[in-house]
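User: I'm preparing a small set of examples for a lab meeting where we compare how different chains pack in three dimensions. I only have the primary sequence for this one, and I'd like the structure in token form so I can line it up with the others. Please keep the answer compact; I'll paste it straight into my notes.
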Amino acid sequence: MQNKGIIKFAAIVLTLLCLYALSFTFVTNKVENDAKEYANGDPVKEKRYLDSISNQPVYPILGHTYQYVKQKEIPLGLDLKGGMNVTMEIELSALIRSLANNPSDETFNKALANAEDQLSTSQEGLVSLFVSEYEKLNPNGKLAAFFATRENAEDVKMSDSNAAVKKFLEKQSTSAVERSFNILRTRIDKFGVTQPNIQLQEGSNRILVELPGVTEKERVRKLLQGSAKLEFYETFDNQEIFPLMQNINNILAAKQPKTEAKVAPADTAKTAPKADKPALLSAKKDSTSKDSADVNALAKSNPLFALLTPAMFQGANGQQGLRPGPTVGYALESDTAKVNAIFAEEDIASLIPSNLKLLWGVKSTAPDNKVFELYAIKATGANGEPALSGDVISNAREDFDQRGNPEVVMVMKTDGARAWKRITAQAAGSPSSEDDNKCVAIVLDNAVYTAPRVSGEIPNGISSISGNFTVEETKDLANVLKAGKLPAPAKIVQEAVVGPSLGAEAISAGLTSSVVGLLVVLVFMMFYYNRAGTVANVAVFTNVFFLMGVLASLGAVLTLPGIAGIVLTLGMAVDANVLIYERVREELNLGKSIRLAISDGYKHAMPSILDSQITTLLTGIILYVFGSGPIQGFATTLIIGIVTSLFSAILISRLIFEWMLKKEMPIKFSNPWSDHTFKNANYAFVKKRKMFYAISGIFIGLGILSIIIRGFSYGVDFKGGRTYVVKFEKAVTTENVREAVNESFGVASEVKTFGSSNQVRITTPYLIDSQEDNADQLVEAKLKEGLAKITGNKSHIESSQKVGPTMANDIKISAIYAVLLSILAIGLYIFIRFRKWSYSVGALVALTHDVLLVLSFFSLFNGILPFSLDIDQAFIAAILTVIGYSINDTVVVFDRVREYLATHHAKTDKMSIVINDAINSTLSRTVITALTVIFVLAVLFIFGGEVIRGFSFALLIGVIFGTYSSICVATPIVVDIIKEKDDQKA
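Assistant: Understood. Below is the structure token output for the 986-residue chain.
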């Protein structure tokens, strides 16, 4: 074996990296276990404990804080942890109307309405559909007449073509989605969820939001769907507000018992930032002041200042002073709610002037801490109105000043520019001095994004905001400023809520299936391959370790389908070892020494291993691209698992064998009973191919007939609707539940048993097309009304899912594309690899055969088998995995055919004989690999839980059909395509 040193080095480096990546999860678990032990079952006490050590070093030697290690641990998906998963869709129709100043033109509005109707069945975007519809309704019409407004003057001219307007609208749509993404991200950060996940789905107007541990559905819906509120406020200076803060602190101190010890805000003071002045508005210069003073002594015996560190600095003469600007203090994130509670106390609230609003900054003062600034905002009017609302902005963009520093340029409408001139003149103060310059706060959803200092009157409504910005920060700020410009409401098109108890059941099921699956693989390999099987088991353990380490380093979310992917990887990981071991056994049968047999076995098995794994990798990549949410989790695990399996099976196992040979340890590749399994097999697979074609044809024919007559049971993500998992105290029949909910909803709903006899899954289309904001609440109220009719049996909603019609259509179309593209990609790879189109056609026919067989099975036996056979995203994941597995088998046989054709005896044999010999020579590998995967899938099916039962069953029958097609369909097809004569060769 060459390059052993490099392989050993790579293995050591990878091991260390994986250990480091996984160590964060171990440290986090230890800290959280300590918190649970300290709290003794009190969740409030537990959270307080974790908050108190948030910025404390908990990682040995390296000293990482708990906050840091928590971010680096392997996060659990919602199906394991419980929580809420939401897909938001930005309503671009409102944006288009607003860009055109809401025209009353009948053709314009008709075109937009038609485009919205077509959106649910088309793959084109709303802008493209709208332009096409308008041109149909008015072939000579010019869209520029609607969009060449004063606000859009820089982008659209009256003379612009419809194509140019379309380009403008697409650009604005992308910008609106990015704005919404930034706003939602900020709102979620303020929501206080541990490890939230928010993703902008590239190329679409959708945003995926995952909130682990959240069960307050209504609060989340209001948070996500509320309109953005951008406002500009004048500010107070810190010196004006500090006496008030001091007075409040004294009142609180007087209320304290004399014996009570006060807590010094050591942590807050340590993390208080340097006292940079706020960003500069209009003037193009940077300005900073001196370092903050150490205020630990000030905080003693001062209850307010124990939580809120005053904004101070140390002057050149060493004297402490109040920091200029609107920031009045700093507080740890965990203390902000306590500070708010103090200000809300009746006697304290009465001291705060009506025109003073105390608002927190939107971001922490530094990326590595959780310290937030408190701003003193000056409201106007009786109701605390802002000086200016955000709808006066016509444009905002990131730019660079004359010195190349990032800045934001903000342009206001005419009416806003007049008010802005007055506000900035008042804030700038005396033109001859900068000492009286005040700040204007930019506030979005009651959080201060920035408070730039005004250096002078801005007469024309065009302002620049400069400061210590990064390019990303200027992009974010520009998006924030544009948030108040045009309405682009967001609506929820897909939603899933998983209760904590259902998540706990999923974890239990996932762990059980993983452990049992691992044991099955280990026992089988040792049982069949003797000591070589032990080497394979070491490779399997190594593979699992590397797989988990890579997942941790990538920050991949672990979901139940992801665990299924790990378990499946265990089964498929032995495939490379099986290929090698079977080849080694062949070399031993030729009389070679054990050392030479191992060397030749690895060498001759390599082409088959690479071809089979690459084809499976292709399906995994396609699954990742077209899938979403948990399906992407499964694909991620599968892809990484293939790579780590190759490294472990080929390189790690080879190193072990080399070490064993060096130590002259006995190596056996079989037990006495397994030594002759499938040896000299000579089954007439090719000769009986027409019988196999007939069997497959009859089954597929019956399946197609069933599909036409009975159809499929589609999951909610394919047909749209709402699904609820409901648990009853006692056993319940689906008929009784169906009658009760149908009567309540007034539409036919689907009710199925979900796992146990006291748990059902209810799917209903009721109000799924409704655009009302309270539609979700209405449906849930109707559901509870129906469930209440089942007397004497209390129920509880364990989880819920909603998929809108547009989302369902997109998922369905993506699924079809994924399957077709997967088949074509594999066919192309086979053609490139084997240089004969007959092999490609054989592979394509076999793959299509497998897909049709599985579809037929799911239609024929739907409603007959006692578990769900829904066609959904998980089913598509199973189909694609089956495609990868089936072609894996087929490629191994093709490789052997190619090898046989190169030998002397094959050149004189008929193609049918060569192919039949190739099938028989690889039969041992085909059956052994199939058995290991089938064993693992059977474990998944039995122990994996109800959530993935249909998924694991689809895989199970797919692997059986895939093994069958590799032997009985794919390679025999090659014979028929070539139309051989007695003496014909391929």
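A couple of notes for your slides: The chain is about 55% helix and 15% strand. Residues 259-272, 283-297, 980-986 have pLDDT under 50 and may be disordered.

User: Perfect, thanks.
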